[in-house]
Specification:
alpha/beta; eight-stranded mixed beta sheet; 9 helices; 20% strand; Rossmann fold; 12 strands
Length: 303
């Protein structure tokens, strides 16, 4: 696979150590230990966190995270605990994002991210899985659905970044650019309050939010991010043939739900259901009712 760009931590060993310590803090808060799976892929080392992966008789859910996040965001406040009692969960750390995977990335507008995702499933010995992707992860999941549809039982798109361009509204640009230019805890917290959450309906516990703030400050200040951003896949979406579920938060400033819903209806022929959650921001993967919806739909499919 051709490497198009490469991102990296500024001080690799020191920053990886910080990240490992951050994971230890999350494990202590959640009272659990994540399985660590290291894969060698065409993008280099790919790290995967596992929950309850030993029971191969259960369905598999493979998660791809949003940009400037780790897939562990999905388990803040033990958001995945109920699912892991019934489903094997694989939290993939997408290459090119601030995590333990290598920073190599393909051209985002090619199908290469889908080929890489298919390779990840093969190396995990997963023949067929449910896929869930938030924001950037939604684009990766759709690329996988185009490249290897037989490996996907259904895909869940959570405020995906592949159905429209990033919003250029002044409000959205202000709150997104503020922590980029000045990555302080205060600015990150302001961004989270205005764009990621919608308090009091959609929020984390104080300790979990502190972990998110620390991670974001770290990612913004310690990671040299050259990874391309998600884009509107447009006509490419017509190639998707797997069952697709769209989950939207009505307070998502980054990708306003009305446009995403309209484009999904027009372009995704295999769209099965759309759910819009009221008073939910962009970080919908941290919203319990959205995760519960994913679980209820997975149960409807025969093993």
């Amino acid at each position: 696979m051709k490497i198009h760009r490469a991102s990296q931590f500024k001080k690799v060993e020191q920053d990886r150590s910080w990240f490992e310590n951050w994971v230890t803090r999350l494990e202590a808060l959640n009272g659990k230990t994540y399985e660590r799976i290291e894969l060698e892929t065409s993008l280099g080392r790919t790290h995967v966190w596992g929950l309850s992966t030993s029971n191969e008789s259960q369905e598999a859910l493979v998660v791809f995270p949003g940009a400037r996040t780790t897939s562990l965001f999905w388990d803040f406040d033990n958001g995945l605990t109920h699912l892991q009692q019934h489903i094997r969960i694989y939290l993939v750390e997408t290459n090119g994002l601030p995590n333990l995977s290598d920073g190599n990335t393909p051209d985002i507008k090619s199908v290469a991210y889908g080929e890489w995702a298919s390779e990840v499933l093969s190396k995990l010995n997963i023949e067929r899985a449910f896929i869930a992707g938030a924001s950037f992860g939604g684009l990766v999941g759709m690329k996988l659905s185009i490249v290897a549809p037989t490996k996907v039982k259904a895909i869940f798109l959570l405020n995906p970044g592949c159905l429209q361009p990033f919003s250029l509204s002044l409000k959205n640009l202000y709150y997104n650019l503020l922590p980029i230019f000045s990555p302080t805890k205060r600015n990150v917290s302001l961004f989270l309050d205005k764009a990621v959450f919608c308090k009091p309906n959609h929020q984390l516990s104080p300790k979990a939010e502190d972990l998110m703030v620390d991670y974001e400050v770290f990612a913004l200040s310690r990671y040299k991010d050259n990874t391309q951003k998600p884009y509107d896949m447009g006509e490419e979406l017509k190639q998707v043939e797997v069952d697709t579920y769209l989950l939207e938060g009505d307070k998502d400033m980054l990708f306003p739900y009305q446009t995403s819903v309209a484009n999904a209806k027009q372009k995704i022929r295999s769209l099965r259901e759309i759910v819009v959650f009221e008073n939910v921001g962009h970080g919908i993967e941290t919203y319990n009712k959205a995760i519960h919806f994913v679980f209820e739909k997975i149960k409807m499919y025969p093993l």
